[in-house]
Amino acid sequence: xxxxxxxxxxxxxxxxxxxxxxxxxxxxxxxxxxxxxxxxxxxxxxxxxxxxxxxxxxxxxxxxxxxxxxxxxxxxxxxxxxxxxxxxxxxxxxxxxxxxxxxxxxxxxxxxxxxxxxxxxxxxxxxxxxxxxxxxxxxxxxxxxxxxxxxxxxxxxxxxxxxxxxxxxxxxxxxxxxxxxxxxxxxxxxxxxxxxxxxxxxxxxxxxxxxxxxxxxxxxxxxxxxxxxxxxxxxxxxxxxxxxxxxxxxxxxxxxxxxxxxxxxxxxxxxxxxxxxxxxxxxxxxxxxxxxxxxxxxxxxxxxxxxxxxxxxxxxxxxxxxxxxxxxxxxxxxxxxxxxxxxxxxxxxxxxxxxxxxxxxxxxxxxxxxxxxxxxxxxxxxxxxxxxxxxxxxxxxxxxxxxxxxxxxxxxxxxxxxxxxxxxxxxxxxxxxxxxxxxxxxxxxxxxxxxxxxxxxxxxxxxxxxxxxxxxxxxxxxxxxxxxxxxxxxxxxxxxxxxxxxxxxxxxxxxxxxxxxxxxxxxxxxxxxxxxxxxxxxxxxxxxxxxxxxxxxxxxxxxxxxxxxx
Length: 566
Description:
The structure is a single chain. Helix 13 packs antiparallel against helix 16 (525-563). The chain starts with 12 loop residues before the first helix and ends with a helix. Among the domains are: 58-152, SH3 type barrels; 161-254; 318-510, MetI-like (MetI-like fold), CATH 1.10.3720. The mean pLDDT is 87. The protein is of the alpha+beta class. Strands 6, 7, 8, 9, 10 and 11 form a six-stranded antiparallel β-sheet that branches. Strands 4-3-2-1-5 form a five-stranded antiparallel β-sheet, with no helix packed on it. The chain contains 16 helices and 13 strands.
């Protein structure tokens, strides 16, 4: 007798739905799509941001009407020309456009020379191009004012000695000397003379403080006034020496000038020190291109911005962002951890604690601009105004802490991100096994000793996860910062070498606001577009580096309690 094997049963459509396989496929497809979008976005930012500083060749375009245009190719697009744009065009051109369904290409050239032309970019349609050349004597010249200059170097005037069409070697040497003089002038004016002005202002405030505390006719006020006058006379002597030295350097600096010639023959004469860098764009070796690329990145990281933040560096924004993120972490970590610790370990679980948890979760969904308005009203006006009244009455009515600044911006973002830390910390505390708590208590440890030595160390990886999320969100928030301290251009850094070294009352620049301002508030959005991408790349890199550091610490903590050592 033979027993036949049962035939395999085909899965019905209802069986697939019962097992949830269509939903698994759908979730898998959604995950792949999400990863693809994130990867594509990051790849696009990296490509555009990393290629921003690469030196491009300069094309000299001769149009059909005989006009010359010199500039870098910025981008190309298609468009449909209007009848007015086709006036005067030959019938062959019109036939070709009609054959292409009325769609033609046009190229955007970055021509620079804004002080001469009144525009940074020029569109040229393909049917307007007669010829394109790449002459080797065309220079791309970066300046401190008016943006780049595209053209030729006509003349170098060194204290009366004029050289027509100077060679690149002597020109670079003269520029190095001129740049050294410019930096010496900036050191005198922005550091040494500024320090004297600060000391004189502090002396004046000492007199005002004595008058407010003891009265204008008091011996203390008279003594402070006499000391201030004596100190001011001493400082004014040093002030005169420094200003005379700066004046001599400025005269020597103005004696070395350079004359630039645009492609249409217009000329521009300016001190050589006003040039940042220059190079023959169509006559560079690969090594020279990499050298310019590296120099531009170094300038971007270490220098001040210029030209309405569309050129130069982002050092103030970088310092401001790092300082704010550190202060944010120092503020949000203890408050978030202590709140979560109380709710989980000490509070009697009930309706009131459940209501508090609901409120904390709802706070995470409040629009960030609301936190900015709260920070302005509470921190700046109420707390900061009180601080000014108590500790800085001599500076009033000019506010010290009674206006937006680094401290209030950090605390505002701490309030914004503290719900994330509270929720993550509660989950981490709940994940610690109850048996470990009971074992510690059974050995005679108090509740606090159990929390401090058993619970918190093992919950530290989860707490760090919440802190990582808080830092990432705080780094990207811009709306509240626009109200409580961030500015377009900060004259002073929040961290410097002047005591107390960290100046919490100062306004600051932020990378997120820098992106917004450059992309949407500059006089020319096209000119600011490259800086938007490269600043975005730097901000993403900064967040990734800080998160990677925190993740590394979290991983070490996990391993420490798995193998018993740190």
